[in-house]
User: What shape does this take?
Amino acid sequence: MKSQLNLKKAIITALFVIIGTAVFAQTGKISGKVSDKKTGETLIGVTVKIAGTTKGAATDVEGRYLIGGVAPGKYTIEASYVGYTSKNISDVEVKANSSTVVDLIMDDSNDQKLNEVVITANVSKESINTLYANQKSSISISSGISAELIKKSPDKNTSEVLKRVSGASIQDNKYIIVRGLSDRYNSAMLNNSILPNTEVDKKAFSFDIIPSNLIDAIVINKTASADMPADFSGGVVQITTKDFPDSRFLNLSLGTSYNTQSAFKDF
Assistant: This one.
């Protein structure tokens, strides 16, 4: 009799563990980075929470936040910070076992007479607005493309992405030409580090070696400034890669090719 009671208790405990694990596995999370609209610098201590709930988080020293244990569905995110106008981001969709990335741009408030100013924006435009805000505050003339636009294109590598940037063209499917000047007059940087030449006999970098799904943004600066190298007269291609992913992912691709002058023909 005692052994039967112990067996029932063990079965009930196992069922509770299985049910609890299944419920926990059906949640997602929201993460992102908060930056200033004018300077582009990240903000520390910004309060980010889900409207109508008690779930929320504050940004760390890198301006990042993470809200975990969120049930699947669509939510509105509220961000508030001292000296900045509050901001609401609507239609933030959270899926089970995945992370939704929402980057926020805060605008400082100089009018102390207003009790509250709420700005509502669409979540899909935040990364594009970040690129436009950085170009607006930059002292140099530049053009670029963000990860939000890259996702909508079928481009597989960086050289194909650069074809969509105004003022730039690609030679031999790998070398960039800015404003009609060949690769020897241009420079390339990856996360603010100068890229070496991939060719032995000329100053050039082959952009087809960087996959497009690793890119967060590409900016081509066409005029010189103090924060860029001075060995160019065409443009400086600044490539920013994505940070460490919040969740695991796997991409597969399959392709083939043949030479019409040699394939299916005798030697």
Observations:
- The chain has a mean pLDDT of 81.
- The helical segments are 2-25, 126-137, 147-151, 158-162.
- The radius of gyration is 25 Å.
- The CA atoms of residues 59 and 93 lie 20 Å apart.
